[in-house]
Task: inverse folding
């Protein structure tokens, strides 16, 4: 009887070392590791990953890689937490009407647009909720490789306020996005979108029309924001001028999604009001470079310098910056210009890294498991070909993008 009980136990104990040897399914070895923007880097370290989480991280001499682990040699490379892009749109032709697209087509578009640039999480702040939900489901099922996608779904704009620059796109792609005619309708739409899976809400505090800029009435914006906050969802505001920012401040919006280079410079008192309201900002500076491209070089420089000044004033005042590019509306995927202009605005390496990692994780409620490289955190990481502390352009030199322990982009 005793022998019969002991034999299975001996077999389990004999097998236990094998289980330990296979406790990791991916290892990044030999990298310079930035654990977070505020911590000193590990100059030559190893990261072990298991089941989508970071199992351990430390100096290379202290971390043993179990047999059978897939190893990525990162000698001479740099690893940071996975990047967030807090201003994208799931609206490119390679993504809309995804029910008609193959998994390979969607994966290819997501790679070109997002994963290629290190993004492991993105916040889509205007798309069709049903279509974005379908793409999210295909990613989470493993059918498609791509980043985690948070979404606001359809944005809120006033009656007659569908932006002039998007009307043709919506018509050409047979997409309908409603306009808001009353506070009651707005409140119900917020509830409906959140029930449908929206992670946040977006308002157009300003809407650019053919001969004017419409501004959302404060009472309407306030109702939308209050209803979203009741469900503990963040609210983004598209702004085109400082009048729109005023609506955003007074209604309690959480994130401004642009600077306003067409308006005045941001004074210290103006920026103080933004920081006192605990607003975050996605600068989208490359957007203005795209928008100004048909003007003269002097006009381009003037507009870009004003946008950079506004970002710099906000950052120096302690405002929370979230990296964002408006990609999906613009098709300029390369992030190098955005980093260049953020640096020119006065943001240092740590500030830019925070905008890509810890700031969005904190702002959107993911800080307990995302935004840093630490034991137990999501295995969302970026492997860079150079050190961004030495050259900001290195943030765009992505070798590997890893989401949940899976490589979703590898440089060829």
Result:
């Amino acid at each position: 009887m005793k022998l019969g009980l002991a034999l299975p136990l001996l077999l389990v104990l004999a097998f236990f070392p094998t289980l330990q040897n296979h406790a990791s399914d991916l290892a990044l070895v030999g990298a310079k590791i930035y654990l977070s923007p505020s911590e000193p880097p590990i100059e030559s370290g190893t990261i072990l990953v298991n089941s989508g989480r970071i199992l351990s991280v430390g100096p290379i001499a202290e971390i043993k890689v179990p047999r059978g682990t897939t190893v990525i040699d990162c000698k001479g490379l740099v690893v940071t937490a996975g990047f967030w892009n807090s201003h994208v749109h799931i609206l490119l032709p390679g993504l809309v009407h995804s029910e008609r697209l193959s998994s390979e087509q969607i994966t290819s578009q997501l790679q070109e647009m997002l994963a290629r640039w290190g993004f492991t999480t993105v916040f889509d702040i205007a798309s069709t909720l049903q279509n974005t939900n379908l793409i999210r489901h295909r990613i989470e099922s493993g059918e498609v490789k791509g980043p985690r996608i948070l979404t606001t779904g359809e944005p809120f704009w006033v009656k007659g306020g569908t932006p002039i620059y998007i009307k043709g796109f919506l018509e050409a792609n047979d997409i309908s996005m409603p306009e808001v005619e009353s506070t009651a309708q707005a409140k119900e739409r917020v509830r409906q979108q959140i029930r449908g899976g929206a992670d946040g809400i977006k308002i157009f505090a300003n809407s650019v029309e053919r001969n004017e800029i419409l501004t959302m009435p404060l009472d309407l914006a306030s109702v939308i924001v209050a209803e979203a906050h009741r469900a503990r969802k963040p609210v983004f505001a598209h702004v085109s001028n400082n009048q729109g920012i005023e609506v955003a401040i007074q209604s309690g919006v959480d994130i401004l999604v642009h600077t306003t280079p067409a308006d005045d410079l941001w004074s210290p008192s103006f920026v103080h009001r933004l920081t006192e309201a605990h607003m975050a900002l996605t600068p989208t500076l490359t957007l203005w470079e795209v928008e100004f491209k048909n003007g003269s070089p002097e006009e381009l420089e003037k507009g870009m310098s004003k946008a950079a000044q506004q970002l710099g004033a906000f950052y120096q005042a302690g405002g929370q910056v979230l990296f964002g590019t408006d990609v999906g509306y613009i098709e300029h995927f390369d992030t190098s210009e955005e980093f260049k202009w953020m640096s020119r605005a006065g943001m240092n390496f740590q500030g830019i890294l925070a905008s890509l990692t810890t700031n969005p994780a904190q702002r959107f409620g993911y800080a307990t498991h995302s935004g840093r490289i630490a034991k137990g955190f999501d295995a969302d990481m970026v492997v860079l070909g150079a050190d961004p502390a030495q050259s900001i352009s290195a943030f765009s030199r992505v070798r590997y993008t890893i989401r949940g322990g899976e490589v979703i982009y590898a440089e060829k």
Summary: Residues 1-23 have pLDDT under 50 and may be disordered.
